[in-house]
Amino acid sequence: MTEVACGLCGGVDSEPVVASSGLRVVRCRGCGLVYVNPRPAEDALQDLYAEYHSRDGGDEDSWAALMRDVFRESAGVLEASRNGKGPGRLLDVGCGFGDFIAAMGIRGWRAEGVDPSPKVVGAAAARGLPVRLGTLEGIDPAAGPYDVVTMFYVLEHLPDPMGALRKAHDLLAPGGILLVRVPHTTPIVRMLAPFGIGESLYDVPYHLYDFSPTVLRTMLGAAGFVEPRTFPGRSTRPPRFGPRVASLLFGTLARGLYSFSGGGFLLPGVSKTTVARTPG
What we know:
Blueprint: E1 14-20, E2 23-28, E3 34-36, H1 42-50, H2 60-81, E4 89-93, H3 99-106, E5 110-115, H4 118-126, E6 131-133, E7 146-152, H5 161-171, E8 172-182, H6 186-192, E9 209-210, H7 213-222, E10 226-231, H8 241-260, E11 272-277
Parallel strand pairs: 4-5, 4-7, 5-6, 7-8
Antiparallel strand pairs: 1-2, 2-3, 3-9, 8-11, 10-11
């Protein structure tokens, strides 16, 4: 186990949020970032992530079904953000089995991916998809520039999310687009805490961070991104009935409130997508 400072401001003054699976989730008093502290060492995390996609009987088909609506919506958002430039070059970080790469390839994009799990990289490569085994941090800067970098439910897993955002910025062309989708679990956990439930929603130690829209926009600005825009986005479709109903119900509510408020209200506690770009 390793004691860590805040991944955004470097502060060490934090307040407890909850204990989950024997680990403490805390909130930085300086900037508001929520993170696990202490946490497993990085080599232990790599071993955990190698089997992440196989948890609870997960396989290629279940992950494709889980993310299908999110991927379809994100493709449209990215193409609209290109201002008529057409398909470009895309890097999907934490690409898993490669379903988003495949979908963007069909739409004419030069899409490739990187993932630390040998199992999913092998499965994606067997489909003829351009994927590499490794991490965002390990990519040579000369591999860029990319027009788009995407991270679907990745940032919360990374030991150094600020470093990852800076690396994505360096890999993007001027005016390039970053699309990030992350959970925002803390409001639900705090709401359920009086009933003695909810702490398992953090999914530690796989998730090391939890991001509010405000904190994520601060991080993006610190990494050099401009014009961040956050919206609820489409819901995931978990394989089990109960979580799937909850995801669809709260996702629909979040999108409705966002639309009704003219984009001014983001329902706490649901996953959100944020799009930003590099200057230029």
